[in-house]
Design brief:
The protein has 271 residues and is of the alpha/beta class. 39% of the residues lie in helices and 17% in strands. The chain folds into 3 domains: 2-112, Tetrapyrrole methylase, N-terminal domain (Cobalt-precorrin-4 Transmethylase, domain 1); 119-231, Tetrapyrrole methylase, C-terminal domain (Methyltransferase, Cobalt-precorrin-4 Transmethylase, Domain 2, 2-Layer Sandwich); 234-271, no CATH class.
Length: 271
Amino acid sequence: MLQLVPTPIGNLSDISQRSLDALFGASIILCEDTRITHKLLTLLAQRYDHPKYNAKLVSLHSHNEADFIAKLTPDFFDAAIVYVSDAGMPGISDPGQLLVDYCLQHDIAYEVLAGASALLVAFVASGFNQTQFVFGGFLPHKQENRRTALAKLIDTQLTVILYEAPHRLLELLEALVALDSHHPIFVAKELSKLHETKFRGTAIEVFNTLKTTSIKGEWVVVLSPFVKTKTLQLGEEELLKLSLPPKEKAKLLAQLGTKSAKEWYEELCNA
């Protein structure tokens, strides 16, 4: 049997009794990172007075998931198998869905235990009053692909929830500022932890705040619904203040219609 077990997204006290029973009763634990899972199990054993875990930890992550499953045979699941991601609910921007699909195709018993997910915590914490939302996970790395993916999500006119890495967070916020500097957004990190951090405000307010704030760690970004497609609303002075590369800034300034992108680029480089 397979059990997909959610793990705390920060606070160890959020672990459920069912999850504890599954983890410490497993024969094999498939995990995104064996080092992180080992540390988690050690801490849980200490916190809840459990004997040391006996399960074998096996690495299963996005880079080896397809190959791992291709080599599986149904009798692998005769043992008590558990899958966990590094934190939160497996299968949400983490591996897990292919395992479930394998079980369905081979009539193997499985269950998904209920538990924490950063996207749901952030959605509720945002206070945006709409029950429908769309989850975009992590946007693509390449800039053009990121723009396309973001535009499709915004066009749904639903609340949009994204995950973002710290080194790309300001880039995302700048794109939102250029789209509509006054649009309400919410960002959060370290959810459920001692140093939980949350900001809600307009895109430009959040951007200006985070420019001078430590942005280490992965973030959840929640965008209130875009009622209609927005056009560039910043003026020349506001655009000039953005910390964008000259080439990108020149393209935005050119949309004002006063100068070409080439002219703006030359002016920015000579400033």
